[in-house]
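[step 3/7] inverse_fold.run input=structure_tokens len=508
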């Protein structure tokens, strides 16, 4: 099993160890009675295997365990699974589990629960996004309560990475069979460090620490997520003392907090990208229009305007330094080229081509305003975009039903460091996340999912990324910046995947 490029993630995690806050009511012995975090969105479901969307993962990770874990720079490390070995042909993965892990109901976590989560749920028909990664699992042989072998219908070279990725949480077989999928969606029960104490949909999540947790125990006794979709309101909650930590603030507010005497803030580059999705049909079936839209976007201006210039601009669906990026290749901002391409298809500023575009508002800092800026840039070359606001959940629903607008501003997380979780899942038409769906692209990407040779697989992604940009199949914009505002007196270690880990929040 090949390692991913660790240098990238050392850079991504460079902000680790930044000092944060001390509230007067914090315990002096290291225990913290309560930490409140202003969060963006409520989990759509408490079934931890059901959705791959990035924002709920920090919350789900408090209640459920993953087989493997990651350090702040995203290096894979043991968790419930202590040892793992991928076969040379990529067709099986042998795992060994701890024998002291218990679910919050007191029952022991065993290899039977592992097999249920990563194979039996799919077989019995549960509709969960986890099947996107583990759908190639043909069987899981349970050797003992602490040992199992995953077998794959085709090579699965990123199996270990998936065991630490979004939605990859071990669930209790007995509990799932008792409460059914509806119960899983509303009443979570996992083996993680916290249990759900209080829940009000789209308002508040209160979690209480499990003192019998098998792993490292967080210092926070009670963890509260206040669901506040608007970034201005999240900032107000922080400054009023309603919360201790506020997520995804504007870069302008982060810089102001950094200069204040009462608060601190960090801007943490993470393994996440902001981009414009493109559909292969409709208006964008015309390659000239696709490329014109891409050449018209001034990415450096977007970074300066919305991230204070701190967000790295990107020309491919990946972050700088990640494997799979084409070498010595780029895509130019060239509005004159945009006008030339549009003219070739019969359009101009006087006779603009019309298309639809969607964006979220408050999902990440500046999303709505960034979308409006892109619409303005397009208008200057002869593209008129009708902008609508949708939620992240609606994006998935619209894409699944084939009703997503021609373009959409979106954010994509890849906490594995492997290009399969960027380009692969964005462009394999069999996946629920693909927007640009053509037989040509699928023919290029599908073989890479089962290529066991690491060097050959990465080379394939380099070639695929170059092809996609040449076709105008996506408009990459910037590497995402995670912004966190916080009171003084805490220490917090950020993760390169953007997750907030409770045990990494401590009193100073």
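[step 3/7] decode complete -> sequence:
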């Amino acid at each position: 099993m090949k390692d991913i490029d660790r240098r990238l993630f050392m850079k991504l995690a460079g902000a680790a160890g930044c000092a944060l806050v001390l509230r007067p009511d914090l315990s002096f012995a290291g225990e913290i009675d309560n930490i409140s975090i202003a969060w963006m969105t409520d989990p759509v479901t408490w079934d931890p295997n059901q959705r791959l969307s990035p924002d709920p993962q920090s919350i789900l990770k408090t209640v459920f365990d993953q087989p493997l874990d990651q350090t702040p720079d995203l290096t894979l490390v043991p968790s419930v699974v202590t040892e793992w070995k991928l076969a040379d042909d990529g067709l099986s993965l042998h795992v060994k589990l701890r024998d002291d892990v218990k679910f919050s109901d007191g029952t022991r976590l065993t290899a039977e629960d592992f097999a249920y989560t990563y194979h039996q749920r799919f077989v019995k028909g549960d509709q969960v996004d986890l099947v996107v990664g583990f759908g190639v699992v043909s069987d899981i042989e349970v050797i003992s309560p602490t040992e199992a072998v995953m077998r794959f219908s085709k090579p699965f070279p990123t199996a270990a990475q998936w065991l630490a990725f979004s939605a990859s949480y071990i669930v209790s077989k007995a509990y799932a069979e008792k409460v059914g999928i509806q119960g899983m969606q509303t009443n979570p029960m996992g083996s993680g460090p916290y249990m759900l104490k209080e829940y009000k949909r789209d308002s508040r999540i209160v979690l209480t620490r499990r003192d019998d947790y098998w792993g490292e125990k967080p210092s926070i006794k009670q963890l509260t997520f206040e669901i506040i979709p608007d970034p201005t309101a999240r900032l107000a909650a922080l400054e009023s003392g309603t919360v201790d930590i506020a997520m995804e603030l504007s870069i302008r507010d982060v810089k102001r907090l950094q200069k204040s005497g009462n608060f601190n803030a960090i801007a943490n580059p993470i393994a996440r990208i902001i981009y414009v999705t493109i559909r292969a049909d409709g208006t964008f079936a015309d390659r000239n229009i696709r490329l014109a839209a891409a050449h018209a976007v001034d990415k450096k201006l977007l970074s300066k305007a919305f991230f204070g210039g701190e967000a790295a601009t990107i020309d491919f669906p990946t972050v700088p330094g990640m494997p799979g990026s084409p070498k010595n290749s780029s895509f130019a901002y060239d509005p004159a080229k945009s006008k030339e391409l549009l003219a070739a298809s019969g359009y101009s500023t006087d006779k603009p081509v019309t298309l639809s575009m969607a964006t979220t508002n408050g999902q990440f800092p500046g999303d709505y305003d960034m979308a409006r800026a892109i619409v303005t840039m397009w208008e200057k070359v002869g593209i008129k975009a009708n902008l609508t606001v949708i939620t992240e959940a609606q994006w998935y629903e619209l894409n699944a039903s084939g009703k997503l607008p021609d373009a959409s501003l979106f954010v994509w997380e890849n906490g594995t460091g492997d290009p399969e979780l960027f380009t692969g899942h964005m462009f394999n038409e069999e996946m629920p996340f693909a927007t640009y769906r053509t037989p040509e692209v699928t023919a290029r990407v599908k073989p890479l999912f089962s290529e066991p040779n690491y060097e050959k697989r990465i080379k394939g992604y380099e070639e695929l990324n170059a092809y996609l940009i040449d076709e105008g199949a996506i408009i990459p914009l910037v590497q995402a910046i995670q912004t966190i505002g916080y009171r003084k007196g805490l220490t917090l270690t950020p993760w390169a995947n953007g997750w907030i880990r409770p045990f990494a929040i401590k009193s100073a």
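[step 4/7] annotate
The first helix runs from residue 6 to 12.
The chain has a mean pLDDT of 91.
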